[in-house]
Amino acid sequence: MCGSYALAEPTEVLEDVFHVDVVGENLPVPSWNIRPTNQIAIVVDTIDAQSSTQLRRLESARWSLIPSWVKGEPPKFSTFNARSEDAAAKASWRDAVKSKRCLVPASGYYEWVVEAGVKVPHYIHSDHLIAFAGLYSWWRAAESDPWMLTATILTMPTVPELAAIHDRNPVPLPEQYWDEWLNPATVGTQELVDAAVAAAIPVASGFSEYAVNPLRGNGPDLIDPR
What we know:
With 226 residues, the chain is α+β, with helices and mostly antiparallel strands. The protein has a single domain, classed as Alpha-Beta Complex (hypothetical protein yedk fold), CATH 3.90.1680. It has four helices and eleven strands. The protein has helices at residues 11-18, 94-99, 178-182, 190-205, and strands spanning 5-7, 22-23, 31-34, 39-47, 54-63, 81-83, 101-115, 118-139, 148-157, 168-170, 208-211. Strands 1, 2, 3, 4, 5, 6, 7, 8, 9, 10 and 11 form an eleven-stranded mixed sheet that branches. Strand 4 (39-47) and strand 5 form a beta hairpin.
């Protein structure tokens, strides 16, 4: 699971880290309490129709993917996370696996652990910017509505180092795998997703974690140790 995360780095840092060519509009400001349906920053690679060149874009998306074939209201079930094990076979994700893969930048994420009968949030992080493997989709409720960019974060069975926190964790891709994951010329398959999970295991195994206070408000103090 990954139901809340933090991204403290501003747009300028994301541009530099991900070597972005095009910066989209209405990108969210740094936040330490990002929740499903919030706007989030995602990194995608696209092919320019006129020049046929590949461009890396930083865009704003709704966190909770809505497949383009959904009409009317968004689905009632949760779509902010996608299980990696069968992503290529599931109707909600398979089109995105094929051609709409993204990175979701994060400083860290939260999981809740029951301690003495109370759910306590733990902040799980690295010493550098994290790039979760994600999927995206363009959606609109009706033909008269504008298109909305939506996204989800892939999850995987937890690494042993985080097993005491939760039985699943997001898929954090190492930098050397970013180009492969984003390449729009690559037709995504379950094998590609499985390879991404394998590449993510050493990254997730290096994460650190500690307990924090209940997530109230939104500021850098949310990630202070409890």
